[in-house]
């Protein structure tokens, strides 16, 4: 209700690939559908065949090459889409967004192209950013090839430290077989524009290796496209800095180094694993199945391609490889209430004593969090009754990759009535009881960005309310414990510090309430102290509603705190050249990013009776604690927002539901003879899902 003085709620999005042709005309929602595997292949084949681009395969070779990094849908312009959806205009030209790394030239750069028309592309044009800013080559996201080269460079550089590592950890890099070391990399990669030097946290490669740092952190410069010129610039071990590998190795050889000896990891019930250990004091059973969601009389929602319908709701959805879920053309009872609702960015800022911890400022769009949509487990990640959808991504690969069961849709009993009332007669009986069960349709996907797992939900309620929610789970980003580190978190295990960090998640909400010409006002409660008009000499203190129109963008930017330009809500005029608040390049070039959200507000345009976008930030502070082992739990670690109708309807639209129960006594006040009214069958029937648990996990 705080979000907008505009009367409305929103909707959600997901991706589905059609595997069989249909003779029916395509649903209008298909203009927002993700690219099919055939379309992804067609774009890649077309671009690879253009001699002026000089593209090489993504895998293999070196970094000094031109390669295709990403292909995904380029959504149509809003004006063209609305002409088609509402006025019977022509179907918008279907195009792809392609990102090319031009590394094989004197001044390497990153260029984005619009490629079309699909499904048979024949041309491309360059896509620019607002202000015409070019994207430097150093801002590119990491690729699998660069990680392979980084690991090879690290293994070679660490050779002089093998005696130290074996003595301290029992693991190593050289010919290690099952007792290997690995690393987690930190970003941003440097301290200024053009840099590409990364702090690497060295860890033992066991289950849950994120919780097994060895005390060694390495700063490796990999800016040059030629890996032979990469070099270790600095090291940190157990609280001390070293300028070179040789300096650290000599300190160990001379026995002047304070060695951090780690205990041998057990073969079973490792603290970072999910294996059960211990017992609950109550003794109640946990080795049997608990409560389940069921659909005893079938599904109450409809999926048609990328069109999702439920009760009064209808919307189109997709799953962007770059940033995740994106919803379009959100309607309730046929009337559009939002053009777009989408995830923009997820950020985690850390503090710590070690260099890796103090440098960590993760911006997960830069890690392609939309393409980190790994398989959802039936019965755990989503109910057994859910509809599961595959996703196809062409990201850092030489063809489309299928991500099985990347999304799910299910109806969820909320466990609390949507509304209810018991009307007492205050004589031991009642006049009536009425209630409507609480249900919501959930669209879900996850982003496993290395250690953290984000569970992204959009929930549709029958009363016109939409909820956007994200749960944080997975492994904490932890560093090696030192006494000085206690200032920056908690000691969560013997050699492990859980570092303090803040999660911030950004959403784009393009509301179209009764058309695209909207205004924005805030409402606040104020108090008055007035003379009581019906009792002389008495006074009344009561609240009243203060309404404040926000007429320009600066007035509509409501900050979380000053002076940093970080807003929990900012409302701006919509522009085609401001499609996103962040980009996949910000992570590795936060100093001169091609997309600067502050520029959306700086021109301070009027926002009265205009096409408006609300940019919403939600977040929470996480001080890790021992109970975050092995993983952060979802209760207490979820944030989101609601979009609610506000004087948009004449009454609660859920009155259209045929699921209420009304009970009236026919013989008050005795109440022994009751009339029970319901519009669904008296009993829901059997509620079982007989299929056993299965999981594939490949993509």
Please tell me about this protein's structure.
The modification 2',4',5'-topaquinone is found at residue 452. Residues 292-561, 566-654 form the Copper amine oxidase catalytic domain. GO terms for molecular function: copper ion binding; diamine oxidase activity; primary methylamine oxidase activity; quinone binding. This protein is mostly beta strands and 699 residues long. The chain has three domains: 28-127, Nuclear Transport Factor 2, Chain: A; 144-254, Roll (Nuclear Transport Factor 2, Chain: A); 301-531 and 540-655, Copper amine oxidase, catalytic domain (Beta-galactosidase, Chain A, domain 5). Helices cover 9% and strands 37% of the residues. It contains seven helices and 36 strands. The strands form six sheets. Strands 1, 2, 3, 4, 5, 6, 18, 19, 22, 23, 24 and 34 form a twelve-stranded mixed beta sheet that branches. Strands 12, 13, 14, 15, 16, 17, 28, 31, 32 and 33 form a ten-stranded antiparallel beta sheet that branches. A hairpin with a 2-residue loop joins strand 12 (301-304) and strand 13. It starts with 36 loop residues before the first helix and ends in a 21-residue tail after the last strand. Residues 1-22 have low confidence and may be disordered.
Features:
Beta-galactosidase, Chain A, domain 5, ten-stranded antiparallel beta sheet, mainly beta, 37% strand, 7 helices, 699 residues, Nuclear Transport Factor 2, Chain: A, 3 domains, twelve-stranded mixed beta sheet, 9% helix, single chain
